[in-house]
Amino acid sequence: MGDNRLEPLVLSDAERATLQNWVKRRTTAQGLALRARIVLACAEGGSNIAVASRLRVNRSTVTKWRARFLRERLDGLSDEPRPGVPRTITDAQVEEVVVRTLEQSPAGSTHWSKRELARVVGISPSSVLRIWHAFGLQPHRVETFKISPDPLLVDKVRDVVGLYLAPPANAAVFAVDEKPQIQALQRTAPVLPMLPGVPERRSFDYVRHGTVDLFAALDTATGKVIGKLSAQHRAVDFRDFLDEIDRQTDKRLVVHVICDNLSTHKAPVVHRWLLAHPRFTLHFTPTYSSWINQVERWFAELERRCLARGVHCSLDSLKTALEQWIQTWNESAQPFRWTKTADQILDRICRYCTRISEPDH
């Protein structure tokens, strides 16, 4: 049916309440929640194209679920059975697995294992695992978070993101941080190389041969990195690294340096250096917000591709490896692409704070 001849979609009060409940309830499968939003948006009027644009889905998705709802009402939003072997697990058992996983925990434990839950529900552990996969549930995993208490959170986010998305003219923007205590590790047995069907193998224990700190400044426009190795990361070492950035940056450019709130970045020796170098400006990220500093993304690459599997029999070997890796990186450097605006970031933080502050039901 074309958009010009759409059949009006009118909801009863009970249907609207059910759809809104599916959208709001945290335990609703995301597919069902999306279908509910589509139907609610169609009920407000507008073409399938308009609804698809508003919800950022394909027009065919809107067309499908509008037609399904008009034909079967609320029952039409459930997944249709597929041909194949008859089901041996009932809808009630599926619901019980989902509800228990999301809203309960076994006695004496913090979360369900597939075998514990299978024993309670009366199905096989593999069936529990399939249900978890279908609903995107991973009770064995947990992620940590920290909401920044910085009173200048909004201003700092706008400041830093503004430098990424709209850098000033005739200026260089560097994301700067230190990676301290990088260890020169030597395995106690030789590393066994990878073979067909066999991954690289290494002993779990190692010998330490000292540590080194790495200062890194990522040019957000080019992706190239200025690095400096140091025995420590004191305020004077940070000042010396600013000297290195100054030496390697076109003197005609204003320099903006994004860094965290470490005390060494705000020490008197750094303040005196900044007064003597007025083309430099420091921009501080909010507390507990290292994710907003682009150089952390580069450190992740360094860890994954250079350090995690590196074997070094001396501190000099580690230093050489770090210097060579930075040189190799710079030969084919590409900038990291920042996509989120400050408003999008702040809106997400606000939504998250609202969620965690709501009373449990």
Would you kindly provide a written description of the structure presented here, covering whatever features stand out?
The chain is an alpha/beta fold and 361 residues long. It has helices spanning 13-24, 30-43, 48-55, 59-72, 91-103, 114-121, 125-135, 153-165, 235-248, 268-276, 295-307, 315-331, 342-357, and strands spanning 171-187, 206-219, 225-230, 254-259, 280-284. It has a five-stranded mixed beta sheet. The longest helix has 17 residues, at 315-331.
How are the SSEs placed, and which strands pair?
Layout: H1 13-24, H2 30-43, H3 48-55, H4 59-72, H5 91-103, H6 114-121, H7 125-135, H8 153-165, E1 171-187, E2 206-219, E3 225-230, H9 235-248, E4 254-259, H10 268-276, E5 280-284, H11 295-307, H12 315-331, H13 342-357
Helix pairs in contact: 1-2, 2-3, 2-4, 3-4, 6-7, 8-13
At CATH's second level, what is the architecture of the largest domain?
A: 2-Layer Sandwich
Determine Rg (CA atoms, Å). Answer: 28 Å
Distance between the termini: 42 Å
Strand order of the largest sheet: 3-2-1-4-5
Bin the helical content: 40-55%
Q: Can you identify the CATH superfamily of the largest domain? A: Ribonuclease H-like superfamily/Ribonuclease H
Overall spatial form: extended
Tally of domains: 3
Outline the biggest β-sheet: 5 strands, mixed
Low-confidence stretches: none
The helix-strand sequence is HHHHHHHHEEEHEHEHHH
**Number of contiguous helices:** 13
Q: What percentage of the residues does DSSP assign to strands (E)?
A: 5-15%
